[in-house]
Amino acid sequence: MTMADAGGPYRVPKRHGGSRAFALAVVMHGVLFAFLWVGIRWNNDPTGVDAEIWDVTTQMAAPKAPEPAPEPEPEPPAREPEPVAPPPEVARPLPKEPDIALEKKKKEKEKKDAEDKKLAELKKKLEDEKKRLADLDQQDKLKKLEEEKAKKQAELKEKEKLAKARAAEMQRIMGSAAAGSTGTAARSTAPRLDDGYKAAIVTKIRSFLNYPGQDDVEAVYTITQLPTGEVLGVRKVKSSGVPAYDTAIENAIRNASPLPKRKDGSVEREITATFKLKEMRQ
Fold first, then answer.
1. DSSP letter at 3?
2. Closest CA to 194 of 275, 276, 264
3. Distance between CA atoms of 282 and 279, rounded to whole angstroms?
4. Which residues contact 66 (CB under 8 A, 6 or more apart)?
5. Where are the domains of the chain?
6. Helix (H/G/I), strand (E/B), else coil: 30
7. What is the pLDDT of residues 230-282, one digit of tens each?
8. How far is CA 197 from the centre of its chain?
């Protein structure tokens, strides 16, 4: 009979088999370590694993049997790869306001420089053209001046020649008068006056007549000419009675100078011709 049966104090009986408890503790620590290691790996795995931590100190005497592992969940069906969207276009940053203003000013300056260059080229071409035209105009003026000079020189020579002929004729006339001339018209050494030669003179004078009247009149004039055919003098022998007609005949005679010559080149120094208006209008 024990002390409990005798009514003495209760005492915990001495446990036997300490090696067994030690082995069980090692196993439990191993299981705990395994659960911890599995839990850490499960945090990185998409599938979850539930783990329960036991308090070894409270359950060491009567450990529970490990719960069966949960059945593995069916793997989800493989997802089709989603279409990869093209990378978004990188929008070019818009220039800042100061940059836009500078770019605008730069373009305006380039445009202005180009216009100024074209304007300068056109101006130079215009100046060159003006200079060329001025040179041509100057050359034309010089040419005209030379032509006018040559013409005046020729006219002066002709006038000098005529003046000498007039002087010679006047000297001859005055010499004849001093020698006892009868006052009749002086005759040249040329052949006798013929009707064809006289008609040619009248025809030329008629081409210069400018008289609008219709009167049936006639006038007689004596014409003195130089050897060149130039009219030296006009003397009215008979008036037509119409002063306007007489004046028109005198003007026509002077404007017709020089008068035609004979075929041999000679002239009649004095010719007296009758100018009828009817014949002058034919």
1. T
2. 264
3. 5
4. 31
5. 21-59, 104-177, 195-280
6. helix
7. 998 999 999 999 999 999 999 999 999 999 998 888 898 899 999 998 888 77
8. 69
Instruction: Give the whole-angstrom CA distance, residue 246 versus residue 274.
Output: 12
The one-letter code for the residue type at 125 is K
Place of tokens 């120094």: 269
How far, CA to CA in Å, does 120 sit from each of 112, 117, 125, 133?
A: 12, 5, 9, 20
**Nearest-CA neighbor of 136 among 147, 146, 144, 126?**
144
Angle at 224 between CA 220 and CA 226, to 5 degrees: 155
Question: The whole model's pTM is what?
Answer: 0.37
∠ Cα 271 279 249 (to 5°): 55
Distances (CA, A) of 188 to 122, 154, 161, 173, 226: 74, 28, 19, 11, 10
DSSP label at 271? E
Rounded distance between C-alpha atoms, residue 213 and residue 143, angstroms: 46
Cα–Cα distance between 35 and 140 in angstroms, integer?
A: 124
What DSSP letter does each residue of 219-257 carry, written as one string? Answer: EEEEEEE-TTS-EEEEEEEE--S-HHHHHHHHHHHHHTP
Q: Taking residues 70-81, what's their average pLDDT? A: 63
What's 195-280's CATH class? Answer: alpha beta
pLDDT at 189 (0 to 100): 39
Which class for 64: exposed (0-12), middle (13-18), buried (19 or more C-beta within 10 A)? exposed
